[in-house]
Structures are given as C-alpha cells and as structure tokens.
Fold this sequence. Notes:
CATH topology: Alpha-Beta Plaits
CATH architecture: 2-Layer Sandwich
Bound molecules: iron/sulfur cluster
Amino acid sequence: MIKHYENDEIIVTWNPNKCEHAAFCFKGSNKVFNPNRKPWIDLSQATTEEIIKIIDQCPSGALSYKKK
Ligand code: SF4
C-alpha cells in the first residue's frame, strides 16, 4: 500500500512494491528512515533539503516527493 508522509514543505510518497531494499535511504539518515520504527519515515528528523537529497538517491523510485 502506498504511503504518504508530509512536513510543511513536501509530501513524500513511499511505494513498498517498488522498494529494492537498497538501503540508501536509511544509510542517508536512520533518523528519518528507520525500518524498525512505525511509522518508519519521520520527516521531522532532518531538513527538507537533506530529505530531498536522500530521496534523490533512491534507485527504485520507491521514494518520491512533491513540493507543496
Ligand atoms: S533507498 Fe529506496 S529502494 Fe532503497 S530501501 Fe530506501 S526506499 Fe527502498
């Protein structure tokens, strides 16, 4: 099921069916992306610029974002 997470500036979408478990996201920040936590994405843990940089590295397109 596709999930959405948002802060004041962006809406992040995660599509688990596309995720290749390449781990770039939680190597980028395991405060924002922590698979052992629910919800596993917490956008309050980094700046929007940092989050965007990490999402841009997601090789599968499972993570994407839209600016508000
Ligand atoms: S970087 Fe993308 S493909 Fe890799 S684990 Fe994170 S969401 Fe999945």
